[in-house]
């Protein structure tokens, strides 16, 4: 029987967590870059770093803005943000892993709708 460290799911989660941390650093530690990235470039960098599958005809900035639109609809005036956040993750998880869906939502919030950042958890 594999130890917890050898279990494939634990390794996968650690890999996804490391990718999300890398994406977060890429999103916010861009000071060493010679030119300033646009918000759309920051978002694309974060999504690429997480390995999220994006179709060739997908408008990536629009996807991030749609995530914010879902959060706007679900969180505005709602005293309990949990169902709205879970709903966004469930919607996104149709085409990717749950971890990637959470990462995409967090990247969207960081770039396009930081007012919802307090609901994103750790």
TrEMBL record:
<feature type="domain" description="DUF732">
    <location>
        <begin position="40"/>
        <end position="115"/>
    </location>
</feature>
<dbReference type="InterPro" id="IPR007969">
    <property type="entry name" value="DUF732"/>
</dbReference>
<dbReference type="Pfam" id="PF05305">
    <property type="entry name" value="DUF732"/>
</dbReference>
<protein>
    <recommendedName>
        <fullName>DUF732 domain-containing protein</fullName>
    </recommendedName>
</protein>
